[in-house]
Specification:
Elements (H helix, E strand, L loop, with lengths): L4 E7 L3 H13 L8 E7 L5 H9 L5 E4 L6 H11 L4 E5 L3 E3 L4 H10 L3 E5 L2 E5 L5 E6 L3 E5 H7 L12 H11 L3 E4 L5 E3 L7 H20 L3 H11 L11 H5 L5
Parallel strand pairs: 1-2, 1-4, 2-3, 6-10
Antiparallel strand pairs: 4-9, 5-11, 6-9, 7-8
Helix pairs in contact: 1-2
Amino acid sequence: MNPAVSILIPVFNNPADTKVCLDGILASTNANRTPFKIIVCDDGSDDATTVGYLEALGDRIQLLRNGQNLGYTRSANRLLAAADTPYAVLMNNDCIVHDDWLDPLVDRLTSDPGVALVGTRARFGRGADGKPTPVMVMFECVGINLGAARKLGGFDERFAPAYYEDDDYNVRALLGGYRIDVIADPKVAHENPGRSYGAVRRLALMKINARKFIEKWGDHPQVALYIRYVLFNPHTWKSGFSADDIAQLPGG
């Protein structure tokens, strides 16, 4: 049976989490009715354990290698370009999956061609009917309609090496007339966010790319509330930003 989904995973070192993630996906094959393949982009790992583990998987994965460390954003674009299935799941290499984790993501994508992204976690706002509606999905594990993705294009590499390329993609999907959704009971856990860059560099990159995001979208009336809700709220998942950090951003 031809795969319906490409599971796309950028990897840079971090062998323990990478092994747990990939072993879990491979072990879930019989628990999911959706046929899938795994494409890994090794983003210039210099850790012999990581390199050896990926090589030992052989034809159980499709392995792409970057000649140097390009960062998450460019590695994700390379993975999206390599996917030749109708749908994809882009996943961080520190995610842990359980049982039939894949089918709910794929079922939501296949049931409505107007849905571009299906996440396992989301930030919510209020729709016109007053009910909670997702305003963005997190890209730690996200189902992607690749037909929509080919129309929208890849991640904006001005945000390389990482952070805010996912916010940008959410906005582009919504402005492109697509919807985003989140599954109610995901069987996916994200264990160690930000480990690839470390806490200090992670916050520095977030500050730089928050400014780039606002410079790109700050004058767009449909994005203004999104910026205010997601970026200028120190209690959101972007927190690491202090009130002073927020005050220094354009419009803060």
